[in-house]
Amino acid sequence: MNSYLLQQGRSKELELFPHIIEFGSKKIQTIQFNSFPVEKTAWLRAYYVLDGRYDWIIDGMSRILYPGDLALILPEQSFGGARELLDIGAFFWIALDMNRSYLSTLESRSIQKILLLNDSPVIAGFKEGGHILQLIGRELSGQEIGFQTRINHLTDTLLILIARQLTKQNNSQRDFPRTFMKLEQELRDNLSHQWTVEEMAALVGLGTTAFTEKVKSFTGFSPISYLINIRISEAIKLLKRTDINLTDVALDTGFYSSQHFSTTFKKLTGYTPSQFRKNNTDNL
Length: 284
Known about the structure:
Blueprint: E1 4-7, E2 20-28, E3 39-40, E4 44-52, E5 54-58, E6 61-65, E7 70-73, E8 78-81, E9 89-96, H1 105-117, E10 122-123, H2 127-142, H3 147-168, H4 178-189, H5 197-203, H6 208-219, H7 223-239, H8 246-252, H9 258-269, H10 273-282
Antiparallel strand pairs: 1-2, 2-9, 3-8, 4-7, 4-9, 5-6, 5-8, 7-10
Helix pairs in contact: 1-3, 2-3, 5-6, 8-9
């Protein structure tokens, strides 16, 4: 999947669709400093995660998203990365002006009411929404006969399905095993331990093959890559504390040497730990 951004008034692909303010996709292979600051949005936005694990702030609350999850951000709500960074992975998004929807006035008002009354901005495992966004992207790029009618129909369908899913969703529970959430907390609490796949699998009562498949399904990463991402995310927190030297940060987050830490950190973020600390300090 390639990264791209279409914007109303700048992209000819959206000229026939005044209700679509933005449409895009992004694939992040290295973390970039200050790439996702928390800001307010003027439009209804939907972000669908294809790959990776995202720690986002939505309307002042921290939300964790995994592949198949859709985040819904209402107009005037704040949105951005918990660390003001875009984590590694891939996602689609669309920004819509509900006042220009092709739905009937009654349907549009009903959907807006459902969205405003909902207190959970994340729809877990919403693959239908991801499929529709992919179809919209294909229609915008292909522009084959009937594409205008097709796109208008798809955007309306997306809103309808979101509203229906929100009415069904149990807001107090995520469709995500509690045992897996406990595993992540155990890893974060004991990052200095040299975890093996067998040990992690044992914590959730699974064999290594089944465990590996579940981790890949839920996060988009292998168990070891998932663990490394957790180590890096915790290292980022520690690097913001100038009272901890780089060697201690490396050892506390489970890297067996400062060189190993530096190499891995730069590979995933694009910065060495010292560069990241300097940039972060300079921006305080």
